Amino acid sequence: MNLIPDPSRPLPVGRALAAIPESVYEAIDRGEPEWALLERLTAMGEMGVLAGLALALSDFQLGAGGAGRYWQEAGALLDGLDLKTPADVLAVMQQLMARPVASRLASLKLARIEKLLGSGVPALLRSQGLEQLGLQPMILWHELATGMRQKPDDKTIAFAMKVFDLQHRIATGRYAQFPTSVPIVADLRIARVSLSSGLLRPTDGSVQDAMANVTKEGGFDANVVREVWASVAEHTQGISLFRVDSLAWQVAEPVHRLRQQDEAAKEAVVQTLRRYHAPDAIAHVMGAEMTAALR
Questions:
Q1: Helix axes 10-18, 280-290, angle to 10 degrees
Q2: If you average pLDDT over residues 250-256, what whole number do you get?
Q3: Of 24, 26, 187, 228, which one has the fewest beta carbons inside 10 Å?
Q4: Which tens digits make up the pLDDT trace of 197-233?
Q5: Among 148, 124, 123, which residue's Cα sits nearest to residue 136?
Q6: Can you give the pTM of this predicted structure?
Q7: DSSP of 82-107, one letter per residue?
Q8: Which residues contact residue 115 at a Cβ distance below 8 angstroms, ignoring those fewer than 6 apart?
Q9: Domains along the chain with CATH numbers
Q10: Neighbours of 283 (CB within 10 A)
Q11: Is 177 helix (H, G, I), strand (E, B) or coil?
Q12: Strand partners, 200
């Protein structure tokens, strides 16, 4: 399946995103499945930040319950614990990988955690700390990508840095000073919203069919997804794509489920934004833009 960008769509989508108040984006972030645990981890200092990165790097190929269950299970394992060393982080991750929600590709995931712990990231966290790294977070981003031997815009690297951004917000009350054009976390949900919003369109068949088919191998090109959202970022008036990612992630599932019912899909986006106290007019505009290609 070939998906191509629609150059007319980044501007209206970006403008709609720019109209959403910052307080709404902050509330949306607090609604992410990882937020509650990140609050606890952040209170543990540098090892809590390291654990946040480890959990983010392993948040893929999840079992039943998905991300919500994954972060809940991690939280249960951390009850009563205070992480003091990288060995403590590894021990928790080993226990988590034995749980059904995380056990798929467990050996691969644990090898990635060992790579993280053996990289320059722990020393960087120790020497500079969360607040200082937040002033120049790309230093951590590049150290993480180098240590993991991945591209900086790879999905798990980008998500790990989003988790760092959330922990910085929890610790300091401010988001880290990332460039606006950080790569979006190009996963299945973002690919589906890229289609429902019309940012991408299939060369053959319906948008609804394309949204279903992106579950299949080769269903979307992550580079194309990142590029089209980078175009959106040019019109968001400084709103980070990390904030946009949180919104898109939360509306993607209901929009996909209701993709054959365009008005219901639009209303699902509107209701999500209302839940986070977005002004009604703004919620309706965003709902229309997120589902424009379903009509």
A1: 150
A2: 97
A3: 26
A4: 999 999 999 999 999 998 765 678 999 999 999 999 9
A5: 124
A6: 0.94
A7: ---SHHHHHHHHHHHHTSTTT-TTHH
A8: 147, 148, 149
A9: 3-29+181-294 (1.10.1670.10), 32-172 (1.10.340.30)
A10: 24
A11: coil
A12: 5
Contacts of range 268-276, beta carbons closer than 8 Å, 24 or more positions apart: 272/247, 273/20, 273/24, 273/247, 275/31, 276/24, 276/27, 276/28, 276/31
The answer to whether the Cα torsion of 189, 192, 198, 201 is positive or negative is positive
Q: Which residue do the tokens 């995931």 mark?
A: 109
Q: How far is CA 196 from CA 32, 91, 159, 192, 290, in A?
A: 21, 41, 22, 6, 6
Degrees, nearest 5: CA angle 214-98-155: 35
Letter string b/e over residues 126-157, b meaning 16 or more CB atoms within 10 A of that residue's CB: eebebeebbeebeebbebbbebbebebbbbbb
Q: Where are the alpha helices (DSSP H) in 46-181?
A: 46-57, 66-78, 86-97, 106-117, 121-135, 137-148, 155-172
Cα end-to-end span (Å), the chain: 21
Give pLDDT, residue 216: 60
Residue 2: predicted pLDDT: 87
Closest CA to 74 of 52, 57, 107: 52
The CA distance from 95 to 195, in Å, is 37
- In angstroms and rounded to an integer, the radius of gyration of the C-alpha atoms of the chain is 19
* DSSP-derived 3-state class of residue 223: helix
CB 91 within 8 A of CB 74: no
CA 72, 240, 116: angle at the middle one, nearest 5?
50
Tokens 């992106």 -> residue? 214
Residues β-bridged to residue 202: 3
